Amino acid sequence: MVQVGNVLVSFDVLTKPFACDLAACHGTCCVEGDAGAPVTLDEVAEIESLLPEIEEDLTDEAREVIARQGVAYSDPSGELVTSIVHGKHCVFCQKPLDSSSQGSQPTLCAIEKAYREHRIPFQKPLSCHLYPIRVSRFGECYALNYNRWDICQSAVLKGQREGTPLYLYLREPLVRAFGQAWYDELLLVTSELHNQHLI
Ligand code: SF4
Question: Residue ranges of the domains in the chain?
Fold first, then answer.
């Protein structure tokens, strides 16, 4: 790990190739797994306030879950995460959940879709934006690690083809999370590690 400001960054984040290939993976990270995406209380409040703009893009089942338990819940470890349908689909998946259409087109996030259509100012939860980097917080310090998931194999291959390591592919969410000055320092530190053949 290397420390940049108050953030510890694993060498995997600096070296492992990654670039999402939606045509190959169909955005499966939004529909697989056994919990929703981590969210902060501020993000929950923001999403709740934007619900009227995105609700029409959600499935009936997702709307029922949101009506029953809200847009987020605490997972078994106590972490606040987005609500899910059938124990795995994020409620904000826009794609119909019927099996006939599954796999034929990428899963779309209803929040991001509304953002791209300039209907709302919030892009998506930061944890989704940063994936597969996961952030752990220890008081005033943070640690960034690469969360490997076999459904992302196509992203590893695309990252290899394009020569894109995680920290470059995820420049935008890293700047969103920690600021441009921090990211610029990360670039300098990484360049120095390369010069010293440490990574
Ligand atoms: S994080 Fe993984 S599953 Fe999700 S879009 Fe990227 S490659 Fe696909």
Answer: 1-18+134-199, 26-131
Assess whether the C-beta atom of 20 lies below 6 angstroms from ligand 1.
yes
CA 151 to ligand 1: nearest atom: 3
pLDDT in tens, 150-193: 999 999 999 999 999 999 999 999 999 999 999 999 999 999 99
The verdict on the CB of residue 29 being under 6 Å from ligand 1 is: yes
> Which residue, judged by its Cα, is nearest atom 4 of ligand 1?
29
Query: Could you tell me how far CA 191 lies from the centroid of its own chain?
Result: 26
Q: Which residue pairs from 119-122 have beta carbons closer than 8 angstroms and sit at least 24 positions apart in sequence?
A: 119/53, 120/50, 120/53, 120/54, 122/43, 122/46, 122/47, 122/50
Indicate whether residue 155 lines ligand 1 (CB < 6 A).
yes
